[in-house]
What we know:
eight-stranded mixed sheet; single chain; four-stranded mixed sheet; globular; alpha/beta; 370 residues
Amino acid sequence: MANIYPKLIIDALRNVRYPGTGKDIVEMGFVSDDIHIDGMKVSFSMMFDKPNDPFIKSVVKAAETAILTYADPGIEIKGNIEVRTKQAKQPKPATLLPQVKNIIAISSGKGGVGKSTVSVNLAVALAKKGYKVGLLDADIFGPSLPKMFGEEEAQPYLEPIDGKEYIIPVEKYGVKMLSIGFFVNKNDAVVWRGAMAGNALKQLIADANWGDLDYFLIDFPPGTSDIHLTLVQTLAITGAVVISTPQEVALADARKGINMFTNDKVNVPILGLVENMAWFTPAELPENKYYIFGKDGAKNLAEDMNVPLLGQIPIVQSICEGGDKGTPVALNENTITGMAFAHLADNFIASVDKRNSQFAPTQKVEVSNK
């Protein structure tokens, strides 16, 4: 029987390259100096810089394969690889939205790409699948959620709960929602400084009775601003979904949006990209596709940035009509766009589940060549 010793494990792990740099994981210092050998059992830990490193899972899997492949022919190795990160996972505030399982930022690098349309229809599609969903319209200066739900005249009321008055969100199509648009005249412009807008959003979050939610979607303002920083500092965001059209000018801003969430100051994982207005399809000719804004732009960007493409949403006249009439197209899964949003919801759920599994504080992977 061959002997297992630390150098054997280290040499095997030198065959694993980190995709971000092409260097081996030993050279980069990812393998901690805590290799423990007990008979035929080997365990050690790997240290990554950030908990939202997109390569954690693939590198751990490659390390497992390398040990089994290069350690020594015929050796049976069983053990654990423990994943640690230098940068602590953003803690969830103990007193803010404790009953919400996942808080999702829906963002775009620029306006006009249909971010609110996607937010509304994703929320409705999730609710149709039986999930408890909340939607916050955080676009203070251009709130569109009341109109898109056909609730422009709605007036949220206050209800006392345990000695404190809370705002009760408007509920429609199974979605709980709040927007600054419910509290201002729909014909008046909202002219507020950044601090005032940030405080208003905090109130809609903290002073509302959102209750138990599986997903709390936040429709962020377009671009990158202090409102974005206020929200990510106020809430422990599970992850972000970035919306873009296939057009190059939109893709350039989408890159900036992705960078905003993944930089060290914000550190929010990207759940994926959604390509809106991916092509035009006439309702009477559902097989026809006309790429009026370019083809697969966001799909290619997702591949370049190593993030999932959650869905491609076509342009169909019913999307515009549904938004204007307050009847989101996701309500009807038998239409082209209804099916597209149902598919988007499925991919979104899978991405959130993968993120929650992948970025758990401690991961242990069984290593075995059986």
